[in-house]
Amino acid sequence: MHAFDVLGDPVRRRILELLADGERAAGTVGEVVRAEFGISPPAVSQHLRVLREAGFVTVRPEGTRRLYAVRATPLREIEVWLERFRPFWDQRLDALATELARGRRARREQPARGGTTTGTPDRTGSVSEEDT
């Protein structure tokens, strides 16, 4: 199964998000996923199996529990595939950063240009006629 086929399912993406914070027991993952998606325990197990067989997660037994963790290799493969598209969003992110910087600069310069803001008290606490 192709990596994007695996990640195309919102339940499997959510499972990976949960595991991104570290290893978790299948029961813990199942509780969250069942609550959020309303699916049965066997359905959660099926999603975990798909992730395991596709190489996205590892599982290790600990007593009666099964602990799942993310495997980075398939995610790196996706990153390599996405790399060819980076120029599309890098340019837009750079433009966004420029606009944010302009906005911050404009806010810093605004009080210096205009003096007091309309309707604000002067040092004595009264509002001047110019401000009203």
TrEMBL record:
Annotated Pfam families: HTH_20
Sorted UniProt keywords: DNA-binding, Transcription, Transcription regulation
Signal peptide segment: none
Domain HTH arsR-type: start-end pairs: 1-90
Keyword Cell division: no
Transmembrane annotation, as ranges: none
Protein name (database record): ArsR/SmtB family transcription factor
SMART domains attached to this UniProt entry: HTH_ARSR
Native organism: Micromonospora zhanjiangensis
Region: Disordered, residue numbers: 101-132
NCBIfam families: HTH_metalloreg
Coiled coil: none
InterPro entries listed in its UniProt record: ArsR-like_HTH, HTH_ArsR_DNA-bd_dom, HTH_MetalResp_TranReg, WH-like_DNA-bd_sf, WH_DNA-bd_sf
Ranges of compositional bias, category Polar residues: 121-132
